[in-house]
Structure formats: C-alpha cells, structure tokens
C-alpha cells in the first residue's frame, strides 16, 4: 500500500496529513526535480484548482516548492480538471497539477498530476515521487536567487479551455435545446454555462455559486435526483450534472430519469461504430461496468476491453492499443480524439450532439441497453489483507459463480483512497442481488474484516 497516492492522485482532509502545506511544499520541490530532468523541454508548471477554500493554501505551498527549484508556475485559477490537462499541453508546460478532491465534500482536497502531454501519471512515476517526498531529502539550496522560478496568473485560461471544449463538436450548435446544468458549485460553474449558451442552448443554471464551502453539497453528479427534479419543473430536454472538478458527468432525460454512465458509453460506442469512427471496434471499460453494456455493444460486433477501476487505467489501455472511447459507469468518459482524461463537458457536448444529429430524445438513445439489477455497498475495514487469503469470502464467491453460471457477477475490492471495502453484485433480478449482497457482507464479518459498528 502506498502512503500518499491513491486511485486518483493524493487525497484527504484539508490541513491534515497528507493534505498539508508542508507536504505540498515538498511535493512541489520533488515534482520540479522529477519533471525538470525528464527531457521534455520547458521548466513550466500549470496549477489549477476547483472552488474549495483550501485550494488557496495548497496552491501557495506548491508554488513555493516549484519556484524554489527553478520552475516557472502558471496559475490558472478555478477550471475543470480536463482544463488543466489541456492547458498543460497547449502552454508547452512540463507538468500540470490540479487541486481537487473531485466529488468529495469541501473539507477534503487533493492533488492530481499530469505529464507534459496532459495524461495522468503511471504508477511507477507516482511511486518515484512518493518515495522522494517521504524521504524529505530533497532540498533547493543549490538553486540561487538568479535561478529561482517565477509565478504568473493566467487571466484567459478559462477562455482557452472553453474554445477547446467547443471544438469537440465542430460546427454543431445546440439551438432549440433546453438544458438544466448542475455545476456542483465546483470548477465548471463558469465554463459549463458559458459553453452551452455560446452554442445556442437555453440554459437553466443550478448550483453555480461557489463560496468555498458548498462544493458537492447535496448537488452535482452524486445527487442526480436534483437535476431530475429540475428537468421536470422546467420542462427541459435534458439535465446535466458535473462533479466538483467536472471530469465526470451524469444525465437525466426529459422525464427526469437518470441515465447512467454505462448507457452513455453504450450509445456513444454504437454511434461511433455505425459511422466507422470507433477505432478497432473496441470500447474500454472498468470492472464496474454493467453486464448489460457488454451485451448491448456485442450485438453490433463491438469488443469490450476491461481494466481495473480508475479512469487512468482506462486511459492507459486506450493509449497502449489505439482505442478512442472508454470510461467508467460513474460518469468518467474519455473521448481520446478530443481529450487526454475524463472530461464531463466534452462528454456532455458529445451526447447533445448525438441528440441533435439523430433527432432522438435522450431516453430513446439510452434504451440501447438494459441494465442488470445491481447492488453496491461500502464498509469500513480494520485492515486490508489480500482478498485471496480470505477463505470464507472466497468460498462465497465460488458459490456465487456456480449458482448463477454466468447470469450475474460480483466484484469485491478495497478502496484506493479510503480504509473501506466495496462490494458489487449484478444478477437477473433484485431479490438475487440482495441475497448475495447479504451473503458477502456476512462473509466479511466472519473474516473479522469489518469495523465492529457494522451490523
């Protein structure tokens, strides 16, 4: 287990280890050292953030560390995470850093790092950075005053990203569409509405007034029921909800019904395949994607490649084999032709473009797949022993496989960022799902893995 980096960067409670100014200062030094010696040209870093109050603290500490090692810093302010990835490339920077805890509440924060091409770092680079940060051995004493870096505020950064995102749908406009847009009081609060309005849509904004404390507070991608209700109230064509850093998105159709990330992946894959634009006729997903997605795209001859959970693993697979569409059921969708990471705004534009070009409402497009009933649960654990070393759990998993014989599946994994274990069961009916969720929970209790308060 790594101490700093989890599934998606470094994350935790703000002003508590490891999300402290002391760690951020040392991280800035190490990142500058690692990337300055990477041979990728400029000694420049881009730093963006979402709307959390603690972003100021981390931004300042990181900047100090970076400039102390002779690296120039370009501060781009509140922009979506994919905006930082794009700006890192377009400004020829060596590294990009986004300060965000994504969908977590305001009291948390985190640090995501991108390389010079705008891609998240592979495990080996994260491990190298972590080892040097934890050692505390790297100093900047060899950098004299004349060699220190400078920090610049980039005033037009948001506009640069806006034009990039709009280019993803070419000449298509959104005139005639009425959209409810929930910005989660996060990083998309300005860019999201501006983009949709500039493209001609009628936009009803929701949760676009951040105050440093209200990010993700009963709104955004984790609360799609909010946009569902607003869609019904306003008679909108579609509802769109981003998370705090806008790298993921969920939708509600004109009835207010939530459309899952898997349904979005299915409709987009089928559309790209029909137009001969789905590279290698392949879709990349994680182990969390529903069986219904696999069945829906298989009928059109589309192959599905599965990775471990985490959008960066999806992206690594796409890059390695030349695929151009992938994502997660939670709403991370990667259109490799336009973005180097999950981009909620680009995904929303692609879905809206599909609605316009097909002249079909979102509900009809989403009917391309039928989801298997599923159950999800997350429990605190007292330890994280290898799952294969838990005999009671493995026995239940074998029973599940024998009983359902391919008519369902289960996934048990530890969280990459918290001391929790996550369970998922899919089966042909809800009763079967509930029964096996209960069996799995009891197995974990029998192993002594769950905290005592879990009953």
CATH class of the largest domain: Alpha Beta
Could you name the CATH homologous superfamily of the largest domain? Alpha-D-Glucose-1,6-Bisphosphate, subunit A, domain 3
Helix/strand class: alpha/beta
Rg from C-alpha positions?
22 Å
Order of strands across the widest beta sheet?
1-2-6-5-3-4-7
- Count of structural domains: 4
Largest sheet: 7 strands, mixed
Strand content: 15-25%
Task: Specify the number of helices.
Answer: 14
What global shape is seen?
globular
Averaged pLDDT, please? 94
Describe it.
With 455 residues, this protein is α/β, with parallel strands linked by helices. The protein folds into 4 domains: 5-158, Alpha-D-Glucose-1,6-Bisphosphate, Chain A, domain 3 (3-Layer(aba) Sandwich); 176-258, 3-Layer(aba) Sandwich (Alpha-D-Glucose-1,6-Bisphosphate, Chain A, domain 3); 260-366, Alpha-D-Glucose-1,6-Bisphosphate, subunit A, domain 3 (Alpha-D-Glucose-1,6-Bisphosphate, Chain A, domain 3, 3-Layer(aba) Sandwich), CATH 3.40.120.10; 374-446, 2-Layer Sandwich (TATA-Binding Protein), CATH 3.30.310.50. Helices cover 36% and strands 20% of the residues. The protein has 14 helices and 19 strands. It has helices spanning 21-36, 55-68, 81-90, 123-135, 157-166, 191-198, 224-234, 261-274, 291-298, 311-321, 344-358, 362-366, 391-404, 430-446, and strands at residues 5-6, 9-13, 44-49, 72-78, 95-99, 108-114, 151-153, 178-182, 202-206, 238-242, 249-252, 258-259, 282-286, 303-307, 325-327, 333-335, 374-380, 409-414, 420-426. The strands form 4 sheets. The protein has a 7-stranded mixed β-sheet, sandwiched between helices. It has a 5-stranded mixed β-sheet with strand order 9-8-10-11-12, with helices on both faces. Strands 14-13-15-16 form a 4-stranded mixed β-sheet. Helix 1 crosses helix 2, helix 3 crosses helix 5 and helix 8 packs parallel to helix 9. The longest helix is centred in the last third of the chain and has 17 residues, at 430-446. The mean pLDDT is 94.
